[in-house]
Amino acid sequence: MAYDSDYRLADAKAKPIKDVSDLLGISGLKRAGREWTGPCPGIGCGGRDRFSLNAAKNLFNCRICGAKGDQVHLVMFVRGVEFKAALDWLCGPKAELTPAERAEMDRRAEENRARQARDAAKYRADAIAAAREIWLASVPAEDTPVRDYLALRGIPRERYPALPNCLRFHPACRYMVKGQTGWREVHCGPAMIASIQAADGKGTAVHRTWIDLSQPKGKALITDPLTGEVLKSKKTLGAKKGGAIRLSGPWARSETMVMGEGIETTLSALAAGVPAGAVYWCGIDLGNISGARIMGQGKKYAGIPDMTDAEAFVPPEWVRDLILIQDGDSEPKSTHAKLLSGARRAMARRPGLSARIVPVPEGQDLNDVLMGASDA
Ligand SMILES: [Zn+2]
């Protein structure tokens, strides 16, 4: 039976995925915005935070075993049943329908699709507006504590004489977390704000790094007073997918782009100054550089891009040579797979472009590594 030929599918897809997850007895999930993360319910998978539900898109995903899909796939995955049995479990047995009933089902399905599309569009617009507000409340980064922060991260003024417009400083940026009872503030302090620009150059999100210049690496130590959990000092807000933080360029004749996961890594490459004339963009996170991948048995580390992902990052047309930096301090196999996916997507979308992955082992000099960059 084709996946979409059962009328109950529309009912199944109208159910919020968190409700389906609760019905299935999946436990240990923690909420962060519209995402829920926790251990994977897959047999023999588990872990701590590899599994996630996306309440906005009604999808689930395990970044380790690769299981993913919608509400029905989740039932199939957890209960180990086929499509029809999953629908029986979720929606009850299939009834014989009259043409009128069938038409009514179709109408409801269409209504539901339209409502979900409207919700998603509104959520996106609200997030972009909130990001813009933070951007407008911040000031150009030059001669602010952002300078001192970058110096602490090994990027001195002489190597990066003019900070780009995409970096700003916010003197009192609020760090909000979403719990069971709504949003609450856990920290408020100075932050480096970076604009995330979509392919068309529009600012659609902000990246924030909370800073504390009394710390050795300049990053604020933020702890949730309620749970005692140590939080990351970086967060993004808005619609970041497919975007980048444009730390330098493009210059008139540039053809080479260097992209790292973090702002600091990318800036270290920039400060090293090789290759000459390159443009340095930060890819925000590995998932954004990778885009969606083809997953499944034996494909976890294969790095095959899912080319149906229309929102994934693709370098601009002028890029002929793409260098992706592989950080030495992240898990090498999955990091490499994600970078490989990004590299292959770029080559497929931009004929004539060549892409390389340059691993930077911990403690090694980025300059030397980039000078001897070899093809992936
Ligand atoms: Zn899993």
From TrEMBL:
<dbReference type="Pfam" id="PF23639">
    <property type="entry name" value="DUF7146"/>
</dbReference>
<feature type="domain" description="DUF7146">
    <location>
        <begin position="126"/>
        <end position="247"/>
    </location>
</feature>
<dbReference type="Pfam" id="PF01807">
    <property type="entry name" value="Zn_ribbon_DnaG"/>
</dbReference>
<protein>
    <submittedName>
        <fullName>CHC2-type zinc finger protein</fullName>
    </submittedName>
</protein>
<dbReference type="GO" id="GO:0003677">
    <property type="term" value="F:DNA binding"/>
</dbReference>
<dbReference type="InterPro" id="IPR002694">
    <property type="entry name" value="Znf_CHC2"/>
</dbReference>
<dbReference type="InterPro" id="IPR055570">
    <property type="entry name" value="DUF7146"/>
</dbReference>
<dbReference type="GO" id="GO:0003899">
    <property type="term" value="F:DNA-directed RNA polymerase activity"/>
</dbReference>
<dbReference type="InterPro" id="IPR036977">
    <property type="entry name" value="DNA_primase_Znf_CHC2"/>
</dbReference>
<dbReference type="GO" id="GO:0008270">
    <property type="term" value="F:zinc ion binding"/>
</dbReference>
<dbReference type="GO" id="GO:0006260">
    <property type="term" value="P:DNA replication"/>
</dbReference>
<feature type="domain" description="Zinc finger CHC2-type">
    <location>
        <begin position="28"/>
        <end position="91"/>
    </location>
</feature>
